[in-house]
Every structure is written in structure tokens, then in C-alpha cells.
Amino acid sequence: MTSFEEAETEETVTCLHMTFYHPCQEEKMMFRCLNFCKREQVRADDVAKFGRDSSVCHYNLMDTRVSRIQFALQFYRKLHSSEYCFEIKNLSKRTKLTVNQTELGYLNKIDLPWRCIICFGDYQILAEVQEGESVDYFETYLHLAEAPILQERSLPSLQPIPESGISSSIFLCQDKSPTEMDENEP
């Protein structure tokens, strides 16, 4: 047997990609303590905590509006399954945490979807799970977003669009102020 044949089978590692955004990042630098664009290993039995208390949290957010411990992520394996997942728990008594429209109060927890947006205050975090097989540890890979992850969605126009395909709302935008019209005028 060659050394190649005797080598241990290489395991793939579950990696949690997290992209962070806050509108005041450039001026307040609240993410300055996070290691961006560098994979970090976390033991499978450790809880990944996010917050402003550096003595408790590995992932520090430098903002007085963030709780000492804002939220935690726990890596686990589903019962009777080989599937690995993350569970997210809100540890803030002051701030609700939203995961894809699901609001979590203090100590509420849910399974983290494989792709989701986590929000609290003005913070937006896109979390994406890259599946792996390792049982000893997982990795985190943090990114910084320059633009909001959640874009403001404008409501669709309530005006009907004529068959010509040109909406009259296009022409309304040219005037700065709305004008009243009598509905009986031609």
C-alpha cells in the first residue's frame, strides 16, 4: 500500500458564511473586531456568541446599542440523521431578533435556515450554510457588505398600465407636486 492509500479520508467542513451590514459602519466601525475574509474554526461543542462583551462573545460588535450577548449559534446534528444544522437563539432582553420574517424574543430559538437574513436594530446579516461532514468542528467565514442586504421594496403602482405599455405614473414623476383634476374634465 502506498502512503496515499493509507492516508486518512479528508472530511469536508460545514462552513457558516455570514455577511454583515450596518448603515453607519463607515463612520462608527462597529465591525472592527471581526475577522473578515478569513475562515475560523469553532469546536462543535462550543456556542458561537455574538455581542459587545468581549469576555463572553467571540464575535464582537462594537456598539453600545448591541446587547452584551445579542445571539448565539449552536452547531448540532439532527436526531436519527447525518444532517448537521445550526440553531440560533436570541439572548438579548431588549431587542427582538428576526430570522427571515420570524421574530424571536428573549431566549426564543429556531433552526437556522440554510440561507437566511438575520436582523436586529439596524443590523442585517446574511447567513448561508455550506454543508460538510466534520463532527469535530465547523468554520465561520465573515464578509462585510457595502450595500444593504435587505433592499427597500417599493409598492407596485396602483395605476393601471395602458396597452401602450407606458404608465402615466412616469409622467407624474416629472412634476414636483401633485395636481388635482376634476374627474369630469376631458
TrEMBL record:
<keyword id="KW-0963">Cytoplasm</keyword>
<dbReference type="GO" id="GO:0005737">
    <property type="term" value="C:cytoplasm"/>
</dbReference>
<dbReference type="GO" id="GO:0045087">
    <property type="term" value="P:innate immune response"/>
</dbReference>
<keyword id="KW-0399">Innate immunity</keyword>
<dbReference type="Pfam" id="PF00498">
    <property type="entry name" value="FHA"/>
</dbReference>
<dbReference type="InterPro" id="IPR008984">
    <property type="entry name" value="SMAD_FHA_dom_sf"/>
</dbReference>
<comment type="similarity">
    <text>Belongs to the TIFA family.</text>
</comment>
<dbReference type="GO" id="GO:0043123">
    <property type="term" value="P:positive regulation of canonical NF-kappaB signal transduction"/>
</dbReference>
<keyword id="KW-0391">Immunity</keyword>
<dbReference type="InterPro" id="IPR000253">
    <property type="entry name" value="FHA_dom"/>
</dbReference>
<dbReference type="InterPro" id="IPR033621">
    <property type="entry name" value="TIFA"/>
</dbReference>
<protein>
    <recommendedName>
        <fullName>TRAF-interacting protein with FHA domain-containing protein A</fullName>
    </recommendedName>
</protein>
<feature type="domain" description="FHA">
    <location>
        <begin position="49"/>
        <end position="121"/>
    </location>
</feature>
